[in-house]
Model the fold of this input.
Amino acid sequence: MDKKLRFGILGCAGIAIKDVMPAIQKSEYGVLAAIASRNLEKSKSVAEQFGITTAYGSYEELIEDKSIEAVYIPLPNHLHKEWAIRAMEAGKHVLCEKPIAMDSAEAAEMAAVAKRKGVVLAEAFMYRHHPRWHRIKEIIASGELGQLRLIRGSFTYNNAEDLDNIRLRPEWGGGSIYDVGCYPISAARFILGQEPEAVTVHGQFSDKHYGVDMMAAGILEFADGLALTFDCGMWTEHRQLLEIVGSEGRIDIPHAFTVGDEEDASYTVTIRGESRVEGREDKADPYTWEVDDLAKAVFGIQPQRFTPEDAVQGMRVLEAALASAREHRRISLK
Done:
């Protein structure tokens, strides 16, 4: 197929420059067509770096560009709703960084606009698009692990000294739950194909870091006694893992969420004490798959893999997790 989806990038965020823009360039169905920044010199510099012909000094100019078919939004969380809606109202498809919004009400508003305008709105949880997850879900569905009993996930890193970081702005949707706790929470919902019934989270909030949750640990209760136990943090040693535990075996997935082209995508399957390693050859950039999956949905090649409704449900869980940590109580999601 010769057609390419023409992407415009709203902002020069690190994740755009390091991960998503190179992914669009490598993708089968996407092409970088424009970039916008509130600083024209900055957007021109990034445009030159990537060989983009069009650079704008405002987000509005890019939104008004009728040649742009899709917009990628890597802006801070509190700006997601405004600019996603403005792009969709202009008839553009939207790939919006996670979490898609500040809360489920915002996410629902965004989903409603996407439906009304007939455009594709996708939340950029790139890990789900990596091809190894198809195989992992096959193993689970085969019954090889027996009855699923537990999912355990961790995602932590340390940027506690970077006091100017936008992740430390509570009014901008900062904090560890929204930044990295969202990954094991998303993975549990994805693996189980269901929503949790309740959530209980204990958080460590720091006055030095403007009151955001710098660390959190919690449990999500699913039907039939299944649970996700997770921890996340922004002031501890880097850790990243997901463990799927069944009555007869388990799957251990290091680099569960940020595995890239050159990183080890392998995982270990252990059945009754016997272990094997799979996924060594799964060299794939999940960002590229994410871009192509959106484009395929736009072009009608395949249905959208993860719908706006899924993003709304995910925000329900995230806002409940943060509320539970702040209020020291179990929150029912039934």
